[in-house]
Amino acid sequence: MTNILITGASSGIGARAAAILAARGHTVYGAARSIEAIGRIDGVTPVALDLTDPESIRSAAAQATANGPIDVLINCAGYGEFGSVEETSLDDARAQLEVNVLGAVGLIQAVLPGMRQAGRGRIVNVSSLAGEFASPLGGWYHASKFALEALSDSLRGEVAQFGIDVTLVQPSYVATDWHDTAMDRLELTSARGPYATMAAAMRRYFSNPALARQMSSPDAVAELIVKAALTERPKTRYRIGPGANVAVALATFLPDRAFDALTRKQFGYA
User: Fold this and answer.
1) CA gyration radius for the chain?
2) CATH of the domain at 55
3) What is the pLDDT of residues 4-43, one digit of tens each?
4) Model pLDDT for residues 79-123, shown as the tens digit of each residue
5) pLDDT at residue 177, as a whole number
6) Alpha helices in 119-234 (DSSP H)
7) Measuring CA to CA, which residue among 61, 57, 72, 59 is closest to residue 118?
8) Residues in Cβ contact with 28 at an 8 Å cutoff, skipping those fewer than 6 apart
9) Residue 195's closest CA among 186, 204, 208, 184?
10) Domain span at 145
11) Residues annotated as part of the active site
């Protein structure tokens, strides 16, 4: 039996992954700001967690390790701060980095001593294809995922000597309410200024039923997270979503301006 702490467990992918892990007999601590929904997941212990509050991070880690070290930490919580770089306030930018990057690292720092002492452990950071390339109007979200990718790569090299592994899960579009939140942020930030035409094009793109049909299900992503968490020798990255590997290849090998043009065409920008 494995002790697992997973963030973002109140809804969507995190809730589904927590349920799968608990159903397989593991001890699962599900963490989120609102724990009411977590309490309804069979076999999952709710843990209150605010990733912007260092004391909350310490308290959550202490609760989850009260009966022994965490074997697997799954950083699944996150959201998308969308809007132009020019118009996004630095307070909103800081909040994005606090939740998607610094909060995740705070939990990693809290559980690593126990993992090192035990001589084993697994950290699964749920990133995104947005950590491989960037598009307009999502700069701070992309920045958070680029940072999570880099930190994961550095961390993997640091902790391998202690029997600890680090892996990334990189979903493309997933059928959750994440997109609704991202578009709400876009509306607040850039719907009425100089980037309004571009913002309207992005909203049309995400509301297109054809895109919805291409999205991965939360169950499929959750199953991949479980695989990354439990497989004996994990890959360093797991991608999921139609065309995910092709998209990364295009971003890697196309000249930057050619990729820019491809992105503009994809989203319908002028």
Assistant:
1) 18
2) 3.40.50.720
3) 999 999 999 999 999 999 999 999 999 999 999 999 999 9
4) 999 999 999 999 999 999 999 999 999 999 999 999 999 999 999
5) 86
6) 139-159, 178-190, 196-207, 209-212, 218-230
7) 72
8) 4, 6, 18, 21, 22, 43, 44, 45
9) 186
10) 3-267
11) 10, 127, 141, 145
